[in-house]
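Suppose you are handed a protein chain with no further information: no name, no annotation, nothing but its sequence. What can you learn? This example shows the usual starting point.
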Amino acid sequence: MNVLIQKITQEQLKPNRDVFKVGDGVRVHVKIREGEKERIQIFAGIVIARRGSGIHASFTVRRVSFGEGVERVFALHSPRIEKIEVERESVPMRRAKLYYLRQRIGKEAVKVKEKSIWENKARGAPSAPKSVPKASLKSLPETEASKSAPAAASQSPLIPEAKAQEGQVS
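A reasonable first move is to predict its three-dimensional structure. Written in structure tokens, the prediction is:
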């Protein structure tokens, strides 16, 4: 009998639904039925829990909406779920459930280390481009375009400041 149940549930499993993990930012496209009309509603947030296996698998998504935390539990293989998109991939979490996010307030409530930022720091890559010091800009050689740029600005009819400096205010 167990083999028969496994065969039936195997047919009900949706492909490509295991593409996310706890801590990832996801967008869940859910079919909503209002009267005779059916539409897609998107619920975006952070996956704080996954539980179960096979046809009984479910996951919990949390988001902060207008200062209030909202959690929603979805059945992973539900026919009501159109698709699941991963917005932000997180680093591997050390916890199976991120229930500690419930006590956080404001931006801290959705703060999870993202994979791309974490990988750059691990490689030793700079997080932001360094600015060029002003002294090195003065030592750059002048080109024809940079020499004629101030003259072109003073001839422009759209810039009254340039005419005011030359005393040609009309």
